[in-house]
Amino acid sequence: MPWVLRGLREGVVTTPYPRRPDGYGESFRAAVSVHRQDAPAHGREIVELCPTGAIAIEDDTIFLHRDRCILCGRCVAADPARFAFEENPETATIGRRPLVVPPGDGDEEGLVRLRRDLARRVRAFRRSVHIRHVDAGSDGSEEWEVAALLNPVYDVQRLGIHFTASPRHADMLLVTGAGSVGMAGPLRRTYEAMPHPKVVIAAGVDAASGGLAHPTYATTGGVEAHLPVDVYVPGSPPSPFSLLHGILLAIGLVETGATR
Amino acid sequence: MTTAPRLLQVDADELASAVAGLVAEGARFAGLFATAGDDGATILRALVAHGGSLELLAAQLPPGRRHYPSLTPSIPAASWYEREIHDLFGVVPVDHPRLDPLVLPLVGTEPPFPRPGSGAEGGRVTLDCSPLPAHVTGEGLFTIPYGPVRSGVFEAVEYLVESYGEDIPHLRTRVHYKHRGIERRFSSLPAGDGVLLAERVEGTASVAHATAFCEALEGLAGVEPPPGAGLVRVVHAELERIACHLDSVIRHTEGAGQAVAYARLTLHKERLMRLRAQLCGHRFARGVVVPGGVSGPPLLGAAGALDGVERLEAAVAKDTHALMQTPSFLDRLRRTGLLPAEVAVPHGALGPVGRGSGVAGDVREARPYGRYRQLGFRPAETRAEGDALARQVVRLDEVASSFRLVRAALDELPRAAAGGRWREEVPVVDGIGLGSAEAPQGELVYLVEVSAGRLRRVKPRTASFHNLALLPQAFRGDILTDFVFIEASFGLSMAGAAG
Questions:
Q1: Which is nearest to B161 in space by CA: B150, B171, B152, B174?
Q2: A59: Cα separation from own chain's centroid
Q3: Same domain, residue pair B205 and B114
Q4: Of A71, A153, A180, the CB nearest to B267
Q5: Which pLDDT band, with edges at 50, 70 and 90, does A258 fall under?
Q6: Residues B114 and B218 in one domain
Q7: Cβ distance of B286 and A147 shorter than 8 Å
Q8: Looking at chain A, which residue has its C-alpha nearest residue B151?
Q9: What is the pLDDT of residues B368-422, one digit of tens each?
Q10: According to the model, what pLDDT value does residue B3 have?
């Protein structure tokens, strides 16, 4: 059978997301949520159970830092009344603080300012965006998930999202990895080579906080140590749906993250 | 379960001749690592594969001594290992032919070396990232630095291509950009968390890494995972192999401009990743392999999983069969990236790279772990051609064989799991353990040293590191436009190579 017919045989395989939710996108673990915030008697144990220190107890109240959570599920197994996997892949956030769940009462004004500033910058993109990806010390799986955005299922070109080779053509910098010392220079130079306005996405917990790979003598604990980050996508690695959500969130094609 | 490795003590001055002696008798040099002692001593350990077993030759450098006779003049495959040790420990292999920095070009003559294995935590390092001077000089020659930020979504690595414009007489690789100091990170984790980090050493081969790490801990404790757990490990490890091999083929089709084949194969890969997530909740099967077994049975149940696997198998087989009959694709691969057996055999080339150049050897057969023996595993036939096409053929054979293994394991699972046990308790036992697994990239070995219940030193020896040293050898007679195929046909992970 000629290749052209092979390509047509299965019809449309592209996800309806973001127009409609995708059934598959909601069928696996995307984040951990806190269902009950009261700290148990064994509070310290729960905190120490987490290999990346993502669980914090403040004033007998539990908070989970999704920017550090690698979804190993230990807390879910140990205390299913308080912790649960969430299957909604819309996990990206503008700014880092909304990654702390449940949301505390903090600097609402700062967040609003952050969103407004980002919205103003991305207006020039006219809802189409060219992305430059840079690996700053990932484990290699993030690259697979980023590259998956180009397969026929996600097919991000349909949404005006394109990957570009030259930082000169890029509106958005998508950074993966824990911020290795060796990539500090190339990362900085790539960012500086991009025209204004520009947006930075930290993709994955490694890029957000260093994840499990941090601290060592050769990591810097994420992208923030090198560049101002606008959007964070948690996950280890983040699924293509979460990455797509992060990109759409940055350019204003979806409203906010982690709201449902 | 792996049997305890044979440990031999030799004098540091005798290490090179001892290893060379074993290699002359037919053993395969498989790696050289160092560990720091708290008192400033350094222990060198050479890993040698002898038939079906692994041997470790250890040599102690007393505190203050920072040199030993290099292995590289007699065993060229040791070159990268000695450069790595030089970077991390400041230990000099005397008479090494080219001791350039590899994973960590530290600034200064007496920098704080990371010295994994020592208790003291060092501060963050400063790297010398200045451009490399040209190695080859002559009229009309120029150097093309390619990377670390490359066109496309790739891991960070820098290739320095020295060329007249078309031919590539010389290629150098710099992997330090994404060095994360991951070996040092193991030592600061509780033994039980080690497996989580192992899954992130080479993220596309998470299952193989978790398995090899757990094999080492299980070997130390003398614990065997329940039979059902062994089968679940096979299912996930083989699905991981199929995903990695498909990824390599996808990069070939992309390079050759085979748009429909590219679209079809990326679709299959996506469906495979989805199937993996349906089986365990994670697209890379993280959290499945744990010390003593697995976290649980496939979430879909054996029958549901089998159904998904069979459909995928048929679809992949049809499209890869068509691809291997598409002349415009095959022409790009045939006689591209020749790695002759004369180079691959003495180096001990691993995985599909080795098998494409006539080097047999698959951990699943040589040192069967898990349930491979019971499932009747047969390794892929080796090829003699040594080109990108041969590596591709080996990969596609392995994809077919992996599908068969997954089906066989799922068939067997309901019987084997009758007891409902998925993991055994693994006490943390002091000692030095070796665990291995056949990762998609090739043989993976974990050296795990446990001391006072802590992970004192963990050294993953990845096939990516071992094989990447061979990449410059595969450019004889090839031109710049062949680069993408040569790189893709090696199918290596930079995270695994950089550490």
A1: B171
A2: 29
A3: no
A4: A153
A5: very low
A6: no
A7: no
A8: A165
A9: 999 999 999 999 999 999 999 999 999 999 999 999 999 999 999 999 988 889 9
A10: 55
Q: Does B261 touch chain A (CB under 8 A)?
A: yes
Query: Is residue B310 located within the same domain as residue B445?
Result: yes
DSSP codes of every residue in B54-91: EEEEEEEEPTT--EEE-STTT-GGGHHHHHHHHHHH--
Domain annotation covers residue B498: no
Of A10, A186, A215, the CB nearest to B149: A186
Query: B29 Cβ partners below 8 Å, 6+ apart?
Result: B19, B23, B46, B47, B48, B71, B75, B77, B78, B348
Residue B379 belongs to some domain of the structure? yes
Residue B229 phi/psi, 5-degree rounding, is: -65, -40
Q: Based on the number of CB atoms within 10 Å of its own CB, is B173 exposed (0-12), middle (13-18) or buried (19 or more)? A: middle
pLDDT-based confidence at residue B4 (cuts at 50, 70, 90) = low
Residue B52 Cα distances to B55, B142, B276, B363, angstroms: 10, 46, 31, 9
Q: What pLDDT, on a 0 to 100 scale, did the predictor assign at position A259?
A: 40
CATH number of the domain where residue B21 is located: 3.30.460.80
Q: What tokens were used for B293?
A: 């077994």
Residues B319 and B217 reside in one and the same domain: yes
Tens of pLDDT, residue by residue over A99-114, are: 998 887 777 888 889 9
User: Residue B167: pLDDT band by 50, 70, 90 thresholds?
Assistant: confident
Both tokens assigned to B425: 């308790």
Q: How far is B130 from chain A (nearest CA, A)?
A: 10
For residue B251, the domain's CATH number is 1.10.645.10
- Same structural domain, B122 and B222: no
pLDDT at site B284? 97
* Residue whose C-alpha is closest to residue B386's, from B378, B396, B394: B394
Q: What is the mean pLDDT of chain A?
A: 92
pLDDT score, position B168? 79
pLDDT for residue B192? 86
- Residue in chain B closest to A85 (alpha carbons) equals B281
**pLDDT average, residue stretch B42-66:** 93
Helix, strand or coil, per DSSP, at residue A105: coil
Q: Which residue of B has its CA nearest to A77?
A: B295
**In a domain? residue B496:** no
Dihedrals phi, psi of A29, to nearest 5 degrees = -70, 125
Tell me which residue in B153, B196, B263 faces A7 most closely, judged by beta carbons. B263
pLDDT of residue A256: 64
Both structure tokens of B380 = 């892929």
CA-CA distance, B372 to B65, in Å (whole number)?
A: 45
Percent of chain A with pLDDT over 70: 98
Domain that holds residue B6: 1-128
Angle between helices B227-255 and B259-280 (to 10 degrees): 160
* Structure tokens belonging to residue B248: 């390599």
Do B124 and B190 lie in one domain? The reply is no
Rounded to two decimals, the ipTM of the complex is 0.95
Give every strand in the sheet of B454-461, ordered side by side. B431-439, B442-451, B454-461
Number of domain units in chain B: 2
Residue B347 lies inside a defined structural domain of this protein: yes
pTM (2 decimals)? 0.96
Q: Any CB–CB contact under 8 A between B270 and chain A?
A: yes
